[in-house]
Amino acid sequence: MSEHLSEEQVADLRHELERQLARLEKSMKVTDEALRTVELDQTAVGRLSRMDSLQNQSLSRGLREREVVRLSQIRDALMRVENGSYGTCTVCDGTIPFERLFVFPEAPECADCVG
Ligand SMILES: [Zn+2]
User: Among residues 3, 31, 50, 76, which one has the fewest Cβ atoms lying within 10 Å of its Cβ?
Assistant: First the structure.
C-alpha cells in the first residue's frame, strides 16, 4: 500500500468507490431501459416523436459510453486497492495526494499526469 495513505484513508476511499459503483450500476440499468424503449418505439410512432426518439437514443448512447468508461475506472481503482498499488500514479509512479483521491477516488494518475 502506498505509504502516504493511512489504512483508514484507504478504507474510506474504498467505501466511496463501492458506493459510486453501486450508484453507477443502478443508473446503467436506467440507461439500458432507455436504449431498449427507443428500439421498441421505432415502428410504432410518428415522424415527430421518432425524431425525439432518435435524439434520446443518441443522448442515451453518449451517456452509456461515459458510464462504461467510468465503470472501468472505478473497477480498476478497486483492483488497485486490492493489489496495494492504490494511490500510486499509473503514469509516473508518483504518489497521488489524499486530497485528490478524496475528490476523484477513481483517479488513476496524479494531477500532473492528467490529460
Ligand atoms: Zn503522475
Answer: 3
CB-proximal residues (5 Å) to ion ligand 1: 89, 91-92, 94, 110, 113
Domains of the chain as residue ranges with CATH: 7-109 (1.20.120.910)
Ligand 1 mean position to 101 CA, how many Å? Answer: 13
Tens-place pLDDT, residues 2-56:
579 999 999 999 999 999 999 999 999 999 988 887 666 655 556 667 777 778 8
Answer with the residue of higher pLDDT: 101 or 56: 101
Per the rule left: phi > 0, alpha: psi between -120 and 50, beta: everything else, 105 is alpha
What's the rounded Cα separation, in Å, for the pair 52 and 90? 42
Main-chain phi, psi angles of 100, to 5 degrees? -70, -40
